[in-house]
Write a structure and sequence with these properties.
This protein is of the alpha/beta class. The protein contains 17 helices and nine strands. It has helices spanning 2-26, 36-44, 58-68, 88-91, 106-118, 132-135, 137-140, 150-160, 172-183, 186-199, 201-210, 236-239, 243-251, 267-282, 296-299, 309-324, 355-358; strands spanning 49-51, 72-78, 96-98, 122-129, 214-216, 225-226, 232-233, 286-291, 327-330. Helix 4 (88-91) links the parallel strand 2 and strand 3 (96-98). Helix 3 (58-68) packs parallel to helix 5 (106-118), helix 5 crosses helix 8 and helix 10 (186-199) packs across helix 11.
Length: 364
């Protein structure tokens, strides 16, 4: 009987090997062949760069952008993809870096401040996107994408609490765990197959042989790429989305994935955010708050009596701005901003070319 069970397991072995080999060698997200440091260095040398597969280790790129950027910078932006379009000219300074990453949450942002603290990076101003992923523990409590940089977040939390903290080391175990879990991931395998189907087998083989997961974006490049300041420029095709696309995407948007139904903002996150403001102001850093609106079609779907976290967040942001003299721009309610679906790429992201029309990101 035991022999039969072992035999059945052996039948699945070739499948597991095939999945692991495909995930490792095709690797569209650059998990096993990441060139994050080289991409960051290329940005700092004045280049525009892109992930060959359209996505990759965003957190790694911004980590190395922080560790290798100049010792003194006038302004940085932190937050999720909602801040991708804030560029140097939008912020009103050439001394600027956009540290935004997709789905940036409480620990992501604290890790970035921790990295800047450890590596002695000075900055005069921070544009801080006030978003539910920073304040909703129900959501970010389940996230694991920032495990490798979590020591820097914990370090920053200790600093904010007035503790004597040792300089952290990267969590090698967490990085190995993440790589191993994706090695046998069916979801990642599907992404690999899709990538290979789109690019063609020969292109995939050339990419694997070259071990290159990124490139320099020339002036005629039409895909998604990082601009020289770390901000993101969406692919030309995505920039051409219409209001009809926004409305359709809004109808299919998973609201609870971004906002907890009947959930409140975390008192702990409020406390640490306020400590962060106090810490930055003691260093002479100016803090600007940004509330990014939802597209009207998505806003109309949200029952304010069930998703009151939005009104709580906006009230909290204005309370902090009033108490600490912070500049604040924006609102979650698009109607307050007199915005329409035409002003968005999708139900969450404002068209980058219109940001200056609705928001003021320049210094006070």
């Amino acid at each position: 009987m035991k022999d039969k069970r072992w035999f059945r397991l052996l039948l699945f072995l070739p499948i597991l090997v095939a999945v692991a080999a495909t995930n490792y060698f095709v690797d569209p997200a650059g998990i096993y062949h990441s060139d994050s440091r080289f991409m960051a260095q290329a940005l700092l040398e004045g280049n525009q760069v892109y992930f060959d597969a359209g996505n990759g280790d965003e957190r790694g790129v911004k980590q190395y952008l922080i560790t290798e950027m100049p010792p003194e910078t006038e302004c940085v932006t932190v937050g999720p993809s909602l801040v991708f379009g804030i560029r140097a000219d939008t912020a009103g300074t050439d001394s600027y870096y956009n540290l935004g990453i997709s789905g940036a949450d409480f620990y992501d942002i604290l890790a970035q401040f921790g990295l800047m603290e450890v590596y002695g990076k000075q900055y005069d101003r921070v544009i801080f996107c006030v978003d539910s992923y920073f304040f909703d523990e129900t959501l970010f409590g389940t996230f694991s994408r920032n495990e490798t940089l979590r020591p820097y977040a914990d370090y920053m939390l200790g600093i904010l609490d007035g503790k004597e903290m040792k300089v952290p080391e990267e969590n090698g175990f967490a990085r190995a765990k993440a790589r191993l879990s994706q090695l046998f991931s069916i979801t990642y395998f599907q992404s690999c197959v899709s990538f290979a189907g789109t690019r063609g087998l020969q292109a995939v083989l050339e990419r694997v042989t070259a071990q290159d997961s990124w490139g320099i974006a020339g002036e005629d490049y039409q895909g998604t790429y990082y601009a020289r300041d770390g901000s993101l420029v969406y692919a030309l095709e995505y920039q051409q989305n219409t209001a009809d696309f926004v409305r359709e995407e809004a109808q299919n948007y998973d609201i609870e994935k971004m906002f907890s139904k009947n959930g409140h903002i975390s008192p702990y996150c409020e406390e640490m955010f306020e400590k962060m403001i106090q810490y930055l102001q003691r260093k002479g850093v100016e803090v600007d708050l940004y509330l990014c609106p939802l597209a009207p079609s998505l806003w109309d779907r949200i029952d304010q009596e069930e998703y009151y976290i939005l009104s709580e967040l906006e009230a909290f942001a204005h309370d902090m701005a009033g108490q600490y003299g912070l500049k604040i721009t924006g609102s979650y309610d698009p109607y307050r901003m007199q915005m329409t679906d035409e002003d968005f790429y999708d139900s969450r992201h404002v068209r980058h070319e219109l940001l200056e029309s609705f928001f003021d990101f320049t210094a006070q």
